[in-house]
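Bumping my old thread because nobody answered last time. Still need a sequence for this structure:
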């Protein structure tokens, strides 16, 4: 995949940022700065923020207990050059997964939810890689 920049720094939400850095490192000649490197060394900076996790009941059984849940992970991101020119304005990215629920297996369902959140972070990282590759550098002035 080709990117309009040769180096990038990723800042913000630790979990998604780590996944994004990992996904970007496998993209050819792109240099991905470590989270300890100064951001000013990168041609582009991807800022991740505003992570929100939520769940909602989708359906209940005949006794009114939850039967299906929807879990959601939302972040916002923006891409800018090191001198502050915006390549992608602040944009939300939301993913959700549906999960069956049984009150008799609460611990197993909690572990499943954590697994699904991890899966959504990896999915978000892959979507962000594609979106960053599609960014256009502003014309030089």
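Sorry it took so long. Here it is:
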């Amino acid at each position: 995949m080709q990117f309009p920049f040769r180096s990038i720094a990723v800042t913000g939400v630790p979990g998604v940022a780590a996944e994004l850095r990992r996904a970007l490192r496998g993209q050819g000649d792109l240099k991905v700065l470590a989270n300890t490197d100064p951001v000013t060394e990168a041609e582009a900076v991807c800022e991740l923020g505003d992570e929100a996790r939520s769940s909602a009941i989708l359906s209940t059984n005949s006794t009114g207990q939850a039967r299906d849940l929807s879990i959601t992970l939302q972040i916002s991101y923006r891409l800018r050059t090191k001198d502050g020119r915006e390549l992608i304005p602040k944009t939300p990215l939301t993913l959700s997964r549906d999960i069956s629920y049984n009150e008799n297996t609460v611990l197993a369902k909690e572990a499943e939810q954590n697994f699904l959140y991890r899966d959504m972070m990896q999915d978000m990282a892959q979507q962000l890689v594609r979106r960053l590759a599609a960014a256009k550098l502003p014309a030089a002035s």
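Residues 80 and 110 are 37 Å apart (CA to CA). Let me know if any region looks off to you.
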